[in-house]
Amino acid sequence: MSQKNETLSLFLAIVITIGLIFGGLWFLMERWAQLTGTVPKTSGSGNTGNPINQFVNNRCNVPNLPEGTFNYGGSTTWAPIRKDVDSVLESLCPQFTLRYTQPASGQAGSGTGIRMLIDNQLAFSQSSRSVKAEENTEAKQKEFGLKEIPVAIDGIAIAVNQNLNIPGLTVAQLKDIYTAKITNWQQVGGPNLPIKVYSRNKEAGGTVEFFIENVLNKEKFGTNVSYVGTTTEAVRKVAANPGAIYYASAPEVVPQCTIKSLPLGRISSQFVPPYQQPVVSPSECPSKRNQLNSQAFRSGDYAITRNLFVIVKQNGQTDQQAGEAYANWLLTPQGQELIEKAGFVRIK
Question: Which domains does the chain have, with CATH numbers?
Fold first, then answer.
């Protein structure tokens, strides 16, 4: 009888020991997840693949994050980040409320965001271009500086009709198309077809300003350019016109099903696509979509890339604290992963 009791006691001791070991391991895994800013994925229905679901249970661990409601605004290129990244920060840190603020007049964009920041209508702004010298001067006249903090990499992708048969364009050829020096696809190795050129207008924001500054070398658009209000409108027009061309932020162009994005090169022998190879055929889209060529964007092999910036007031006040804390959070591994999920290229 005593032997049976000893066996039972030994069995219970083993069970309790195993339970303690697994309990300890579970606690350590949960603690590690909190410290590293990740939540282990599970096979249950709670994990939908949404970035918010992956991070919402974490604590707010953002250094120097002030409490309050902060107006911000600016670049339309940042729209996916505002939707899929900023919402996670607000879920983690409900004491930090972001309020996107449209300009009272004119179109939203990098330039208007910086203007509103200088006029003290925003705590910080989001931009797809660098701060201009004259903007810095205006800020200094109001006794504060402007600091730009790069947080992501974007590229400019060129959209053309699916049926256009051309291997790619050089940046010089692209410039000549938009300044009306090249007007037929035959001039760049394509079919005998007039080029129908589309762009948003200069007031539309940082993407157009960046294009004029860095692709056109500050030359004016040619008289052949037709202006559209949005990229959505432009994509429809390019899909309907065999000779059309348009440019926009790569995440807005590369995944599209009805148009294709052209490889670009600094020289004609080195065209680099903005999408990952192999290219996804239209018949496979939208169940499969082309993905950004992140490696080429990050290395600079793709010809037209740029940084996305958080523009922060250097005034020693709460606005500066909010802007810097927001930018620093975007630069954490968690923030960079979310930026990548939103369709952009991580900067670190």
Answer: 58-153+306-346 (3.40.190.10), 155-305 (3.40.190.10)
